[in-house]
């Protein structure tokens, strides 16, 4: 699978490129936001590793413009302790984030968790045989697409995974820990708001179709997808 890394730290890019190449990935590196966006829009990548602090265009602007036309999975590389960067990145449609400095093995685990979805899509092909339908929401499990009253929902890969899990468990509470482990492939850390932000993004996209709230927050527990009106 081909990955794009957009980071102005050339030394880090070289190290990660060597490490990920040894794990079977093809890695291309770009060192400024403007060129990174151009590269991301002009080619197809399985995943983009995107630094926040970049020359010419910062990572947030790159992600914002990318999401206007593409849903390529993105892992944001954020400064350690910068909660605003993490939350804002997730609001703009990042699939996950990892704070710098990070362990190479942890990054690889995050990359694998996301690229496994792509392998799953490839294996399933374009069959539309398996579908879930609850309260105006249709989940096409084979094509990995979601619809509201036959209108497609423009979801990132992570948002789709979260919504599909909630719809599969309609009427039952799904904890944030379950969502994190099953969707992001990692345990939920203390004060981690990733799941909250992904659910918030899903709610906003569903709300654009003027239907009542479908995902209810169970305070201190998790979320439940409402079965009845």
Automatic annotation (TrEMBL):
Subcellular location(s) of the protein: Cytoplasm
PTM sites of type 4-aspartylphosphate: 51
Residue stretches making up the Response regulatory domain: 2-115
DNA-binding region as annotated in the record: 129-227
PROSITE patterns named among the record's database cross-references: OMPR_PHOB, RESPONSE_REGULATORY
InterPro entries: CheY-like_superfamily (IPR011006), CpxR-like_REC (IPR058124), OmpR/PhoB-type_DNA-bd (IPR001867), Sig_transdc_resp-reg_receiver (IPR001789), WalR-like (IPR039420), WH-like_DNA-bd_sf (IPR036388)
Phylogenetic lineage: Bacteria, Pseudomonadati, Pseudomonadota, Gammaproteobacteria, Alteromonadales
Segments forming domain OmpR/PhoB-type: 129-227
SUPFAM superfamilies (alphabetical): CheY-like
Swiss-Prot/TrEMBL keywords: Cytoplasm, DNA-binding, Phosphoprotein, Transcription, Transcription regulation, Two-component regulatory system
Protein name according to UniProt: Response regulator transcription factor
Biological source species: Pseudoalteromonas neustonica
Primary location group: cytoplasm
One matching Pfam family: Trans_reg_C
């Amino acid at each position: 699978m081909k990955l794009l890394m957009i980071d102005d730290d050339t030394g880090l890019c070289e190290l990660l490129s060597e490490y990920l190449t040894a794990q079977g990935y093809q890695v291309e590196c770009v060192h400024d936001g403007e060129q990174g966006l151009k590269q991301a829009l002009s080619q197809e990548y399985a995943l983009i590793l995107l630094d926040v602090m970049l020359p010419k265009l910062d990572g947030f602007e790159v992600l914002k413009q990318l999401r206007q036309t593409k849903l390529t999975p993105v892992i944001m590389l954020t400064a350690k302790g910068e909660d605003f960067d993490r939350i804002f990145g997730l609001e703009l449609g990042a699939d996950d984030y990892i704070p710098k400095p990070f362990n190479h093995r942890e990054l690889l685990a995050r990359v694998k968790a996301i690229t496994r979805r792509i392998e799953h899509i490839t294996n399933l092909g374009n069959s539309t045989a398996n579908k879930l339908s609850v309260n105006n929401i249709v989940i096409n499990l084979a094509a990995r697409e979601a619809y509201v009253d036959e209108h497609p929902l423009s979801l990132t890969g992570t948002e789709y995974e979260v919504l599909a899990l909630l719809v599969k468990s309609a009427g039952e509470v799904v904890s944030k820990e379950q969502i994190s482990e099953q969707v992001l492939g990692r345990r939920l850390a203390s004060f981690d708001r990733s799941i909250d932000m992904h659910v918030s993004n899903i709610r906003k996209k569903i709300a654009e179709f003027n239907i009542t709230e479908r995902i209810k927050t169970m305070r201190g527990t998790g979320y439940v997808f409402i079965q009845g009106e």
